[in-house]
Every structure is written in structure tokens, then in C-alpha cells.
Specification:
single chain, about 45% helix, globular, about 15% strand, about 140 residues, 4 strands, four-stranded parallel β-sheet, alpha/beta
Length: about 140
């Protein structure tokens, strides 16, 4: 029989997963289904937002091929990134086409205040195209 601590951790992980699932369903009901365009004219896209609210290095680095491809397809467009990995600005700011990295908090004190500040910064800009590479991301849905 596994130790009690391991059982509690597993139960908490499962509970967190269930809560995220239900929160996603509630958000879908409140905000509506995501609308996707089947065709976009490249000449009409001047600003792009990529949202990946995740605090892991690997998930942040996996965005680089998409950012490079977007820049190749839309060389005149500015690309903004909404990320949660704390070192993302230093890692990705030098990529071609990237204008700014809006950093969302991952952990720590004042997380709600920091999250709202980053959200306000994004909402002050207009984007012609917004991309969330993770379709079932609760945080991505909130930001978009």
C-alpha cells in the first residue's frame, strides 16, 4: 500500500484536474465557443498575439518554431507574446518579429495583482490575430 502522503498528492492532482475541466466548461458557457477563422488575408494582419500561460521552460521554447514561421509568413507584423515562464523575455525577445513579451506571474506573492496588471497591458493593445497553441488551456482562454 502506498504511503498516505502519496495518496493525498495524487488525490489533489486529480481534484485540480477536475476543477480545471469544470472551470473550462463554465468559461465556455459564459464567454462562448472560440471562433476560428478559416481564411485570413496576410495583408490585413499587422499584429499577432501568442498566448501560452505556462511556467515551464520547455513549453516556452516549443513556441520558437511557430514564432519563426509566423515571422516568415507575416514579415511586417509585430508579434507579442503572453507567457508565464519567468525568463521568457530574455530567451525570446531576440527572435525576429517579436515586439514584446508580456509576462504573467507563475507563482509567488501578489499573483492576482500581477496577473491583472499583465491582463490590462494586453487589453490596451489591439491584435488582428490571437493564437493559443493549447486549445484546452483555462488560462489561455481567460487571456484571450
Amino acid at each position: 500500500m502506498p504511503p498516505v502522503g502519496a495518496l493525498i498528492r495524487r488525490s489533489l492532482r486529480e481534484l485540480r484536474g477536475q476543477l480545471r475541466y469544470w472551470l473550462g466548461l463554465v468559461l465556455q458557457r459564459l464567454i462562448g465557443r472560440r471562433h476560428t477563422a478559416t481564411r485570413l488575408a496576410a495583408r490585413d494582419i499587422h499584429s499577432v498575439l501568442i498566448v501560452r500561460i505556462n511556467g515551464r521552460l520547455g513549453n516556452t521554447l516549443f513556441l520558437t518554431p511557430m514564432i519563426e514561421r509566423l515571422h516568415a509568413l507575416l514579415p511586417e507584423a509585430r508579434i507579442d507574446l503572453a507567457l508565464s515562464y519567468p525568463h521568457a523575455p530574455a530567451l525570446l525577445a531576440g527572435l525576429p518579429g517579436v515586439r514584446q513579451v508580456v509576462l504573467f506571474p507563475h507563482k509567488g506573492r501578489g499573483i492576482i495583482r500581477q496577473y491583472l496588471r499583465a491582463l490590462r497591458q494586453l487589453r490596451s493593445a489591439h491584435y488582428d490575430l490571437a493564437i493559443d497553441p493549447t486549445p484546452y488551456s483555462t488560462s489561455g482562454r481567460l487571456v484571450l
